[in-house]
């Protein structure tokens, strides 16, 4: 088990807390991600990838995912080029993406029940905050954090800092991370939290099931599992 954020008092003193992932979880953007990925691949001569193949091979860190596709690790220059192209194409396509079915209603229900929730994404922080605000859901979260620093890595240390910032409000033992990637479960484990993984994003169900946590097909099921895990 990884590090816990410092909180005072018993975990029983805290209500259940959700840490939501953004891309592929609250935001239904997997088609934009695939399109932007293929645009980046085209720049260095890699064949386009289907959604099914993407979900089968996807992993973090992202260069490792590219290695699975290319048969070798990308060079530093290739990675830099692909990363820049991906984000440029993604920004263009993201505008046409909506929230995942039921997301806004579930966020409202959780808050009205007197429970807290926050958002942690590996999307760049300075872009994430206005994007979330643009979807009209920012007020549901007590904290919104995106990635700072280089892209392509794991969420674990970001999760550690996120929960440290919520010390006194959320206890790791009463926190459930809802995301679409195995890395979300690893980040949850790192801080002593639970996780529920959603099949609508980056991974196949078979890949998600390797994490050893509940795997669901809807966000409604994810919230129901979170309630069960923190009961």
TrEMBL record:
Signal peptide: none annotated. GO terms for molecular function: hydrolase activity. InterPro entries: HAD-like_hydrolase_sf, HAD-like_sf, HAD_sf, PGP-like_dom2. SUPFAM superfamilies: HAD-like. Keywords: Hydrolase. The keyword Heme does not apply. This is HAD family hydrolase. It comes from Streptomyces katsurahamanus.
């Amino acid at each position: 088990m990884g590090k816990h954020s410092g909180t005072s008092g018993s975990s029983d003193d805290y209500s259940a807390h959700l840490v939501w992932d953004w891309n592929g979880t609250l935001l239904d953007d997997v088609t934009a991600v695939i399109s932007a990925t293929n645009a980046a691949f085209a720049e260095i001569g890699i064949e386009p990838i289907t959604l099914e193949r993407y979900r089968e091979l996807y992993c973090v860190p992202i260069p490792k995912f590219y290695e699975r596709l290319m048969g070798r690790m990308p060079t530093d220059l290739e990675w830099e080029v692909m990363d820049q192209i991906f984000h440029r194409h993604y920004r263009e396509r993201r505008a046409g993406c909506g929230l995942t079915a039921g997301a806004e209603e579930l966020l409202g229900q959780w808050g009205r029940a007197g429970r807290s929730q926050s958002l942690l994404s590996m999307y760049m922080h300075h872009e994430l905050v206005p994007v979330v605000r643009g979807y009209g859901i920012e007020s549901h979260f007590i904290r919104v954090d995106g990635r700072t620093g280089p892209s392509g890595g794991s969420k674990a240390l970001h999760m550690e800092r996120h929960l440290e910032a919520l010390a006194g409000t959320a206890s790791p033992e009463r926190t459930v991370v809802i995301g679409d990637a195995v890395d979300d479960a690893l980040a949850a484990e790192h801080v002593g939290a639970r996780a529920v993984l959603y099949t609508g994003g980056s991974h196949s169900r078979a890949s998600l099931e390797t994490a050893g946590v509940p795997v669901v097909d809807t966000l409604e099921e994810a919230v129901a599992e979170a309630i069960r895990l923190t009961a």
